[in-house]
What does this fold into?
Amino acid sequence: MLASQLQSPPRLLSLGDAAWTVEFGAEIDPQIHGRVLGFCSLLDTLSDDDRLVGVVEWVPTFRSVTVHFDPLQADAMALGEHLLGLAGQSGSLSAAGCRWSIPVCFEADCAPDLVDVAASCGMSPEAVIDLMTGTVFSVYMLGFLPGFPYLGGLPASLEMSRLASPRKVVPARSIAIAGRMCAAYPWESPGGWRLLGRTPVRLFDPNNRRRPALLAPGDELVWRPVGKDEYLAIERACAAGEFDLASLVQQEGVA
It folds into this structure.
């Protein structure tokens, strides 16, 4: 894609009477997402800006940011114009969060689609695992379920369509791929992505009021392969509240 397309002026879109969406592009692309992160970072620094009075929260996606506000406190039109101005000067960030190293078990009962994916890609299951664990994934956004991370960076050689018939039950903490994306299911749910492994680490903890979702947009992660014994030991520690999540952080602030 041409650089001029990636740097197109942001657009302001109305989302009802209590939200504005600032759109930076029309593609899922690291440069566009960098502009999303840059805008969010700027908003984080402007808590004392009188022109942002009434703003409740903002939600980043692949290519846009939705800013929710209280219409009884904010002048909607003035706020929209201010947001558009900020978006034009916010710049870009390559990343804004932590880099995580998260354990994953790739044994057969945790990875029901691994063999089929490997065969479809013309490689061995071990080669698929090597690609998955040798990739630094970027957290683009959370959605679908609380704490469900959409991860960019999947190697092109692993691009796969969704299952023709989605599963009625995907086990919680399953690692999956579809298209050019990777993801992890925080909860047991239906789903049509290809399941390549499972992590013992909780991806969403409602009891953690400070950060219920383990991952956040702007974070990066690598999958660390573990055997079944280590998987079960970590799973038990997590269930008992004895696992130190800070031990999974490889690097703080990977911008």
User: Anything to note?
Assistant: Residues 162 and 193 are 5 Å apart (CA to CA). Confidence is low (pLDDT under 50) at residues 1-6. The two ends are 24 Å apart (CA to CA). The first helix runs from residue 3 to 6.
